[in-house]
C-alpha cells in the first residue's frame, strides 16, 4: 500500500507531496510521492492530507473509561479513593472488558496507536484480550495494591505477584508482539516494600518486561510516602529498585534537585500528563528542566475521569501551553518538542524499537489526518497545526503494524457502535464500595 500526502516523518522532516510505502508490518520506503509511485507502480494508493507516525500514549487507564465525568472538581487522593477506586472495585469481568474496549476505541479513533496502560487489580486479562481484538499496540499491566486499598482491590502480596507472573506468561509478546507487559504497582502509597521489591524481581526475570507506576503526582502523596519511609518518593522508589531504563514513572510533578539528578542518572522515563495535572490541580511538572537534563519525557492523557478525553492532540497543545505559562517563556516547549514527546519519546517509554517515526524499515504505525477544515485554513505549518490546531476527530485513518484499524474515520476491527451501546448501559454502583475505600484513604 502507498499512503500519500504531506508526510511528517519526524519532528525535523516534513515531506510535501510525500508518500509512505507499507509492506506487511513494516515501512518499505518514505520519500517523494512521484518517485515512489515510479518505484512501486502496482501498489494501491490512498491519499490523506497529513500522514504522521502513530501517537504514543505514555500513561493511560483504558479501564477507567466508564468513569468519565463522575469525579470532576476534586484533588487526587479524594478523586482516587471516593470515586475511581470504588468504580474499579465495582466492575465485573464483562464490564472491565467493555471499559477497556471503550478506551482503546477512543485511542485508535483519535490517533493513539500505542498505549502504556495502567489497568486495574481485578480482571486484567479481559483488557489484554480487548487490546488484542481491537489491534492497538500496548504495554499493559495488572495493578498491584497490597496496602491502603479498598477491600475489593486489596490483595495478598505474593498472590498479586503470582497473578502478574501468569499474565506475563500469557500475554507478554502476544498478538504478534503488539502487546507486552509492564509490572504495575499503583503507587508507593498503596504498595508495601515487599510488593515494590517483588515488582522489580519479577520484571528482571523476563526480557523486555517494563515497570510502570505513578510517582510524585501530588503533595499529599509524597508526604504520605515520607511518613512511611522517611525518604522522598523518588529516593524510596530507587531504594526498592524502581528506577532505571525499564521504568516508566507517570507525573513526577513534585521532585527536588536530588530526585531529578537521580531520574537522569538512572535513565528512568517520565510520562507527563498535563491535562490531568491541571484538572486535579496537582501542579506543573518541570518538563523543560527534565528534558534539559536528558531525561526522556513522554506524553499521556492519564484516565478519562481526570481529563476527560483521550485525545492526544489536545494533550500536545496543553503540554506546550502549560510549560510556556509556567516558565513565562513563549519559546519554551515548542511544537517540535511536544511532537517528539508524543512520538519518539513515547516509543522509548513503551520499549518498542523502530517506532515513533516514519522511516524505512520501521514499524508501520501510521495515522492519516484530514485538514479540509476551516480550523486548518490556511495551513502554513503542518507541525504547528498538529500540536496547536488539530483534534482527534480529524483522524480518518489509523494503521497499527500494517493493519488498518480506522478507515474513513470508522473503526474496522470491531463493532464500535455495539461497544458504545454496551458501555452506556452499564450502571456504576459506587456506593457499596465507598465506605471501604474511604477507610483506606491516607
Ligand atoms: Zn494515572
TrEMBL record:
Domain annotation Amidohydrolase-related: ranges: 50-404
Domain Aminodeoxyfutalosine deaminase/Imidazolonepropionase-like composite: 18-42
Source organism of this protein record: Haloterrigena salifodinae
Classification via CDD domains: ATZ_TRZ_like
Domain of life: Archaea
Lineage, highest ranks first: Archaea, Methanobacteriati, Methanobacteriota, Stenosarchaea group, Halobacteria
One Pfam family this sequence matches: HUTI_composite_bact
Keyword terms of this UniProt record: Hydrolase, Metal-binding, Plasmid, Zinc
Name the record gives this protein: 5'-deoxyadenosine deaminase
NCBIfam families recorded: PRK07228.1
InterPro entries (UniProt xref): Amidohydro-rel, Metal-dep_hydrolase_composite, Metal_Hydrolase, MQNX/HUTI_composite_N, MTA/SAH_deaminase
Recorded GO MF terms: deaminase activity; hydrolase activity, acting on carbon-nitrogen (but not peptide) bonds, in cyclic amidines; metal ion binding
Protease found in the keyword field: no
